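User: For my dataset I need records formatted as: sequence, then structure tokens, nothing else. Please produce one.
Assistant:
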Amino acid sequence: MKAIDAVKRNVEDGEIRIIKDKRGLYKFKLTSKNYRVLALGSSYSTEKSAVRSSESFKNFALKATTVEIDTPADQDNIVEPYIDITIADVKTGGKYIVEKYDGEFSWDLKASNGQILCQAEGYTSKSGALSSIESFKKNVETGTFKILKDKNGNFHYNIYTASGRLATIGESYNSKQLAESAALSVASYFKDAEIEEKK
């Protein structure tokens, strides 16, 4: 509820920017006056689509009502409520690639073959990105993995904290098996992966 209030307060007084990520996709980002990220839009292939999305967001953010429900919003989409990541083999050769792009920092967790297993972006400092990696490691170790199916029929894993809060959304795959395999790969590489800063 506090997060919703913060978004409403900052929709008019904060800054909504259109950013282009390192994959060439566009999205909007709402930041507070102290540069804290409050909302991040979906990715679009064109800047024009991202602008339209930001305008819709701004129009509805103040008018929308808040509804509390008893079950998680994604409950109906969960196709694998629990993945036993303790069966994952510990692997070496993985890397956390920390990169600065267009004034912001991001990181990718990559397997030894270069496959991207997880991504995070939108940090205003390198220390923020590094701190996020440590939080990610803790959530993998103490949290739970679930496989979900989205409205487009694709599958992805979510990582939930020990308290049940959504912490990470994984990459999308066209089958449940691939999403589950990716989750197990994260569990295999996350602990021993080296941190490498991309110049």
